[in-house]
């Protein structure tokens, strides 16, 4: 039992060391978390200052862009919408992070409350254990007092009656033997009662020990549960820290994305401004070149038309001349035909010349007709070509007008989109200012919450340290009490061992005396048994003699009964003469009765002695056990 108490003491010391190590770990982790919170707070402040500077620069750049921008593309609206979506997602993530931080605060508060309740329960269990230890001390003191009283009682009544004077007669021997049996029974009863009481005390101590072990195991389980809860709290804090870091990282990513989008927006705005300026210049140049080209083509076409009109007029003049010449030739031919009659003779003479001249005139006429047909075909082809060119120029002019109208419409749309984008930029700036204000308010709220958490953590650390110090003091006191209790138990156990050794020696001496007396009693018993057997043999012999004598007497009585009455006198004399044998028969009968009584008494005495011997043997076996 003392070794088990020492083992429990060592286990308690190991458990206290382990709890101290766990407490140091918790304090270190709390300090590291505080340092990380402070560093994150400083990073927030630095990021806010940097964001304020970037926002001011962006505002200046935005004013220049508004002043310098003229045309903004339609894709700017989609980018603005994406930017709004990213801002909304960043706001949602930030709100989620704030909700998680509030949940963390609630969980930490609940865990601190539960840990306080468990600590109070552990203190109550420790007080109950101290009370049980005090009760066990009282019980041990009572047990010690009872053991001392029992030892004094055993020492005050030593079994010395077994060495009495020698036994002279059978009756005196029986009385002394009964007195010795009573003393021996009393001694065995006292030993058995002391043994049962000690066994009951040991059993009770074992039960109390089991109960204390169960309570100690329960305390260890509670401590392990508290440590697991602390580990869970640490894991929860780490996970919450990871969530906060993820939220901060997401915030940084959103800020970086916002800055990147701002730079990309300014770059795209500049590019679009330059491209719009280039496009307007190119379109203006193209329109001017197209108008100049169209004007040149129109002038050329007008020149061609005038040339063609001149050619047509020339052809008409030539045709008129040819017609006039033809009419003239016809008139000449008519005149010639008219003069042919008159000049028939002359014509006959010059008929060949006239025929030749007429053939030449007909050839000239045919050639002129062919030329007129060719000129008419050329005129028709030139008119058709002129009409085609005029239609093509009209179509090109219509296309140019349509393109010009489309460009004007595009310019109107671009101007409308520019106004929309300017309004959207104003709205985005307002939203940025609003989000900046929300961020500042959230940071102020988070800083206040962090300060509150730091204060609560400090108070909890102080309370936990004070409670741990109080528990360590109580445990130290309890260990000192247990050490003193163990030392007293050791002294008591040494004293009990010495007293039990002395009692065992005394009991061994008394047992040896009892054994010697038992051997003497056994020898006497053997002698008495031998005498009993002899007396029984003598009784059997006397019984056989008495039986033969009774048969002889009955025969004599039978013979006397057969005598006649006349021999009454003789019979009377005979009876008077045989008076002495009749008295002998009566004496034999009395002696027989006495022998029977003596044999019964002897049998009862032997039976009782056998029973006593069996009891003695059983008690000796118990004592040996």
Automatic annotation (TrEMBL):
<dbReference type="GO" id="GO:0045162">
    <property type="term" value="P:clustering of voltage-gated sodium channels"/>
</dbReference>
<keyword id="KW-0175">Coiled coil</keyword>
<protein>
    <submittedName>
        <fullName>Uncharacterized protein</fullName>
    </submittedName>
</protein>
<feature type="compositionally biased region" description="Basic and acidic residues">
    <location>
        <begin position="76"/>
        <end position="86"/>
    </location>
</feature>
<feature type="region of interest" description="Disordered">
    <location>
        <begin position="25"/>
        <end position="88"/>
    </location>
</feature>
<dbReference type="GO" id="GO:0005814">
    <property type="term" value="C:centriole"/>
</dbReference>
<feature type="coiled-coil region">
    <location>
        <begin position="119"/>
        <end position="146"/>
    </location>
</feature>
<feature type="region of interest" description="Disordered">
    <location>
        <begin position="603"/>
        <end position="625"/>
    </location>
</feature>
<feature type="coiled-coil region">
    <location>
        <begin position="195"/>
        <end position="236"/>
    </location>
</feature>
<feature type="region of interest" description="Disordered">
    <location>
        <begin position="563"/>
        <end position="583"/>
    </location>
</feature>
<dbReference type="GO" id="GO:0060271">
    <property type="term" value="P:cilium assembly"/>
</dbReference>
<dbReference type="InterPro" id="IPR038911">
    <property type="entry name" value="SCLT1"/>
</dbReference>
<feature type="coiled-coil region">
    <location>
        <begin position="376"/>
        <end position="456"/>
    </location>
</feature>
<feature type="coiled-coil region">
    <location>
        <begin position="497"/>
        <end position="524"/>
    </location>
</feature>
<feature type="compositionally biased region" description="Basic residues">
    <location>
        <begin position="566"/>
        <end position="583"/>
    </location>
</feature>
<feature type="coiled-coil region">
    <location>
        <begin position="291"/>
        <end position="318"/>
    </location>
</feature>
<feature type="compositionally biased region" description="Acidic residues">
    <location>
        <begin position="46"/>
        <end position="66"/>
    </location>
</feature>
């Amino acid at each position: 039992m003392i070794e088990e108490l020492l083992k429990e003491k060592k286990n308690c010391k190991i458990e206290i060391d382990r709890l101290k190590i766990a407490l140091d770990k918790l304090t270190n982790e709390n300090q590291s978390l505080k340092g990380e919170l402070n560093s994150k707070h400083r990073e927030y402040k630095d990021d806010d200052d940097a964001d304020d500077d970037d926002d001011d620069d962006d505002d200046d750049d935005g004013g220049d862009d508004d002043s310098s921008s003229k045309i903004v593309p339609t894709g700017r609206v989609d980018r603005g919408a994406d930017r709004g979506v990213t801002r909304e997602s960043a706001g949602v993530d930030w709100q989620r992070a704030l909700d998680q931080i509030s949940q963390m605060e609630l969980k930490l508060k609940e865990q601190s409350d539960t840990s306080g309740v468990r600590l109070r329960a552990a203190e109550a269990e420790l007080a109950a254990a101290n009370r049980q230890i005090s009760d066990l001390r009282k019980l041990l003191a009572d047990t010690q007092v009872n053991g001392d009283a029992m030892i004094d009682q055993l020492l005050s009544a030593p079994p010395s009656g077994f060495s009495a004077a020698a036994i002279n007669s059978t009756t005196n021997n029986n009385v002394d033997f009964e007195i010795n049996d009573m003393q021996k029974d009393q001694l065995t009863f006292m030993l058995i009662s002391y043994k049962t009481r000690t066994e009951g005390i040991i059993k009770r101590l074992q039960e109390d020990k089991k109960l204390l072990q169960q309570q100690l195991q329960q305390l260890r389980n509670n401590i392990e549960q508290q440590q697991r809860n602390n580990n869970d709290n640490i894991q929860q804090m780490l996970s919450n820290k990871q969530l906060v870091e993820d939220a901060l990282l997401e915030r940084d990513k959103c800020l970086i994305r916002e800055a990147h989008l701002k730079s990309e927006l300014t770059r795209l705005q500049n590019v679009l401004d330059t491209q719009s300026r280039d496009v307007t210049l190119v379109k203006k140049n193209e329109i001017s070149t197209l108008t100049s080209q169209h004007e040149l083509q129109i002038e050329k076409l007008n020149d061609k038309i005038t040339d063609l009109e001149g050619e047509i007029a020339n052809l008409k003049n030539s045709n008129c001349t040819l017609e006039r010449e033809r009419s003239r030739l016809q008139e000449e031919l008519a005149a010639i035909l008219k003069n042919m009659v008159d000049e028939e003779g002359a014509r006959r003479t010059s008929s060949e010349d006239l025929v030749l001249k007429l053939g030449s005139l007909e050839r000239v006429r045919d050639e002129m007709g062919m030329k007129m047909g060719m000129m008419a075909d050329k005129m028709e082809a030139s008119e058709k070509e002129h009409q085609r060119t005029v239609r093509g120029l009209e179509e090109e002019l219509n296309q140019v007008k349509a393109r010009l109208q489309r460009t004007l419409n595009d310019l109107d749309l671009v101007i409308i989109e520019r106004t929309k984008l300017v309004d959207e930029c104003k709205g985005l700036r307002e939203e940025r200012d609003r989000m900046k204000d929300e961020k500042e308010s959230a940071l102020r709220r988070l800083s206040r919450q962090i300060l509150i958490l730091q204060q609560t953590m400090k108070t909890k650390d102080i309370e936990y340290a004070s409670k741990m110090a109080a528990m360590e003091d109580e445990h130290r006191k309890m260990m000192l009490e247990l050490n003193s209790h163990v030392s007293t138990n050791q002294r008591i156990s040494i004293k009990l061992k010495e007293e039990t050794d002395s009692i065992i020696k005394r009991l061994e001496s008394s047992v040896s005396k009892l054994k010697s007396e038992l051997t003497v009693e056994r020898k006497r018993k053997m002698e008495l048994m031998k005498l009993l057997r002899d007396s029984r043999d003598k009784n059997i012999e006397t019984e056989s003699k008495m039986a033969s004598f009774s048969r002889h007497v009955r025969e004599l009585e039978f013979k006397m009964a057969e005598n006649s009455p006349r021999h009454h006198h003789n019979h009377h004399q005979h009876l008077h003469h045989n008076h002495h044998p009749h008295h002998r028969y009566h004496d034999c009968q009395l002696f027989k009765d006495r022998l029977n009584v003596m044999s019964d008494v002897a049998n009862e005495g032997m039976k009782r002695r056998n029973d006593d011997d069996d009891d003695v043997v059983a008690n000796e076996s118990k004592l040996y056990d």
